[in-house]
Amino acid sequence: MTAMSQTDRAAALLDVMGRLSILFDDEVHLVRRQQRREVNELEPQKQALARAYEELARALRVDGEGLAELSPELRDRITATTRSLGEACRRNLVVLKAHSDVHRGVVDAIVKAFNQDRQHETGYAKRRGGAAPAGFPRGGAPATTLDTRL
After folding, report:
1. DSSP-assigned beta bridge partners for residue 130
2. DSSP letters spanning 72-123
3. What phi, psi does 124 have (nearest 5°)?
4. How many Å apart are CA 150 and CA 134, to the nearest integer?
5. Using the 8-state DSSP alphabet, how is residue 5 labeled?
6. Long-range CB contacts (< 8 A, 24+ apart) of 22-30?
């Protein structure tokens, strides 16, 4: 196995950052079109590119002298591509967070409506041999909440 030069690492990093930016933009479009399956299919590729980005960026930072050997043009391209990747990442985060917030709001509204229906029951119901108000808590009916531990 041959060792990569800093120039080769920088070129590989530029390629990975460009591919990540495209992937983030693709994900934004898929989320906006609510194509969940396609979004999920991007995840393995996104993870692999993120790992490659981390490894290449770390390898470039470790060798400080090697960075000085890079041409000014290559360093400028890395700076510009890093800025572009950051912008794509921010756009991706905003859309994913908004999408998550919408879904959380819908689930919360459903849970609230379900719990209100249970509280507004009227009349009496048989309960262990006696009668109790229908809205009276039942032993086997747990409160409905959203499990956010997933």
Report:
1. 127
2. HHHHHHHHHHHHHHHHHHHHHHHHHHHHHHHHHHHHHHHHHHHHHHHHT--S
3. -120, 150
4. 33
5. P
6. 23/49, 24/85, 24/88, 24/89, 24/91, 24/92, 25/88, 25/91, 25/92, 27/92, 27/95, 27/96, 28/91, 28/92, 28/95
**The tokens of 22 are what?**
């495209």
> In this structure, which amino acid lies at residue 9?
R
Q: How far is CA 30 from CA 39, 62, 103, in A?
A: 6, 37, 16
Most confident of 27-36, 106-115, 118-127: 27-36
Q: Which residue in the block uniquely carries the two structure tokens 């989320």?
A: 31
Structure tokens belonging to residue 105: 């709001």
The closest of 144, 20, 146 to 92, measured between CA atoms, is: 20
The token pair at 62 is 């470790």
Tokens of 99: 């999408």
CA distance linking residue 42 with residue 80, whole number of Å:
25
Question: Cβ atoms within 10 A of the Cβ of 31, count?
Answer: 18
Using one digit for the tens of pLDDT, what is the confidence trace for 42-61?
Answer: 999 999 999 999 999 888 88
